[in-house]
Amino acid sequence: MAYPGQPAPGGFYQGGYGGAPGGPAFPGQAQDPLFGYFAAVGGQDGQIDADELQRCLTQSGIAGAYKPFNLETCRLMISMLDRDMSGTLGFNEFKELWAVVNGWKQHFVSFDSDGSGTVDRQELEKALMTMGFRLSPQAVTAITKRYSTQGKIAFDDYIACCVKLRALTECFRRRDTTQQGFVNFHYDDFIQCVMSI
Q1: HEC per residue, the chain
Q2: Residue 51 scores a pLDDT above 50
Q3: Are strands 118-119 and 153-154 parallel, antiparallel or unpaired?
Q4: pTM to 2 decimals?
Q5: Which one of 59, 115, 152, 160 has the largest count of C-beta atoms within 10 Å of its C-beta?
Q6: How many CB atoms lie within 10 A of CB 177?
Q7: More confident: 6 or 151
């Protein structure tokens, strides 16, 4: 009897084609449309690094009319979901990333009120509020200065900002055991939290 992720009797997967190392992680993985993008750049190890993620996202057209993601944004995306700290993403992590980036893209488009392909400080503040971030005006200004060019935040930078906010918030939330908005960090823990993103 063959189990999901195990070869059928005779040592081959049904259909006669090999899958990712160890075979499909779940039945039907090879039919998942995202698996084609992933497998095209993932190589034999069944993982993608930042360079491969950049190629994959560019080939998929997820950025639409916006310029392709830069390598640093791809590194940030990997760090957000890289639970085993390997510096790579497996297919399931990639699928999660795909869903998150698509959600942020739709969000970006809805707040790009003038259709310029950028958001300004006020649009960013509204976008962050609808995502549940309650930040001071000073924090929004600091974020805008960090991610904007002449006061405008392009799609790639918007995604980088969202990745960093999500990752830092998760890092903070894990340490805020009482959910009061306050934590104490040891210096080394703080550095690990910030530098791993």
Answers
A1: CCCCCCCCCCCCCCCCCCCCCCCCCCCCHHHCHHHHHHHHHHCCCCCECHHHHHHHHHHHCCCCCCCCCCHHHHHHHHHHHCCCCCCCECHHHHHHHHHHHHHHHHHHHHHCCCCCCEECHHHHHHHHHHCCCCCCHHHHHHHHHHHCECCEEEHHHHHHHHHHHHHHHHHHHHHCCCCCCCCCCCHHHHHHHHHCC
A2: yes
A3: antiparallel
A4: 0.74
A5: 160
A6: 8
A7: 151
What pLDDT score does 114 carry?
85
**pLDDT mean over 96-106:** 89
Compute the average pLDDT of residues 153-160.
92
Comparing C-alpha atoms, which of 118, 131, 107 is closest to residue 65? 118
> Average pLDDT of 49-68?
82
Q: Distance (Å, rounded) from C-alpha 88 to C-alpha 77? A: 10
